[in-house]
């Protein structure tokens, strides 16, 4: 039987992707739909810590939250921790307008797990890559404009995105730790 | 003698401008330099409420905070509550790149006053205008790209900015209320 952990988010797409990845890694994620308050901070760790603490106080069961952010080098790390807001306002079209030759970017994912008040574990991963010249593909978020290093296609068009993405790598770190912990606890 | 209120901020420029405006309106502002945590929210009121509460818990004296945000209509309200972050990353140059013909914008200011735990008063003001075609003037923030309605110059170049700006209007609302309160309390 798969271990069960709640996944707190307001974003069903994100949950579905995380569920798919995690089930292959041996953990069954269950959706805990909620709107969590985010603090404004340049530290993804701090934002994630706060969100996991909140999620646990709402759900009172072992729970993770996942946050991802795109950092574009030539834009001093924009959109960074405010990726959702930027996506909802200027969108991928806006980001493409801001860029010229220098297109390096990093996609980061951070997972925060909480099963006890005041006790949060963080797992993060990053994927280096670049911003495409045009929007390619139709998936949600920045997937249609991010090309991971060593690839020629955007996340949206990559068939194996869920085996190479920042979200996959962070979930793998988390599930390894979680399953080991369960094993050593008997 | 002028009434004395603390002004909590990490931004000396903002304080100096607010001090200048307020002294003419009958209130003496004193700088309380601190870094306040901002929540991520699309509601300026909510952000300001949290900041004033925090500022009071740090300073334990009657204190105001002031937040201003630029909302560009054709960009769905971008940069909005994340104005500081956007200024620090893509800057005014980035904003100009995002715009074409439709350039309407609103500059909002909100002041939150706290003199007792759990008791916050909010005062807000907005100025309609547009984003200039080019950066004009050298003042801080979005001043070099915002032209208030009925004017031809940006805030940076307007000699009487401190008599027409969103910050002036919000400070006027606050000082009117504050001085009346003091008067009626004897």
The residue-averaged pLDDT of chain A reads: 93
Write down the Rg of chain A: 16 Å
Helix content of chain A: 25-40%
User: How many strands, what sense, and barrel or not for the largest sheet of chain A?
Assistant: 6 strands, mixed
Q: What is the CATH architecture assignment of chain A?
A: Alpha-Beta Complex
How many separate helices of chain A? 6
Name of the CATH first level of chain A: Alpha Beta
Number of strands of chain A: 7
Question: In the CATH scheme, what's the topology name of chain A?
Answer: Maf protein
- In N-to-C order, the SSE pattern of chain A is EHEEHEHHEEEHH
Broad structural category of chain A? alpha/beta
**Overall geometry of chain A:** globular
Domain count of chain A: the total is 1
Give the largest chain-chain interface (CB within 8 Å): A-B, 23 and 23 residues
The assembly state of the depicted protein chains is: homodimer
Give the amount of beta strand of chain A, in percent: 25-35%
The poorly predicted ranges of chain A are none
Spatial sequence of strands, sheet with the most strands of chain A: 2-1-4-5-6-7
Distance between the termini of chain A: 14 Å
Reconstruct the topology from this structure:
The structure is a homodimer of 186-residue chains.
Chain A lengths: L2 E7 L2 H14 L1 E7 L4 E3 L3 H16 L3 E10 L10 H7 L1 H8 L5 E13 L2 E13 L14 E3 L12 H4 L1 H19 L2
Parallel strand pairs in A: 1-2, 1-4
Antiparallel strand pairs in A: 4-5, 5-6, 6-7
């Amino acid at each position: 039987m798969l271990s069960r952990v709640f996944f707190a988010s307001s974003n069903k797409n994100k949950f579905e992707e995380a569920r798919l990845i995690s089930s292959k890694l041996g953990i069954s994620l269950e959706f805990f739909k909620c709107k969590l308050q985010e603090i404004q901070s340049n530290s993804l760790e701090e934002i994630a810590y706060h969100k996991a603490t909140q999620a646990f106080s709402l759900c009172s069961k072992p729970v993770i939250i996942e946050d991802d952010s795109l950092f574009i080098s030539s834009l001093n790390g924009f959109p960074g921790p405010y990726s959702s807001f930027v996506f909802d306002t200027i969108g991928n079209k806006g980001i493409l307008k801001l860029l010229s030759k220098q297109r390096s970017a990093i996609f980061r994912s951070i997972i925060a797990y909480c099963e006890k008040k005041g006790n949060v574990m963080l797992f993060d991963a990053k994927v280096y890559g670049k911003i495409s010249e045009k929007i390619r593909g139709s998936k949600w978020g920045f997937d249609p404009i991010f090309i991971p290093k060593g690839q020629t296609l955007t996340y949206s068009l990559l068939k194996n995105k869920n085996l190479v993405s920042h979200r996959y790598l962070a979930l793998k770190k988390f599930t390894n730790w979680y399953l080991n912990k369960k094993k050593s606890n008997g």
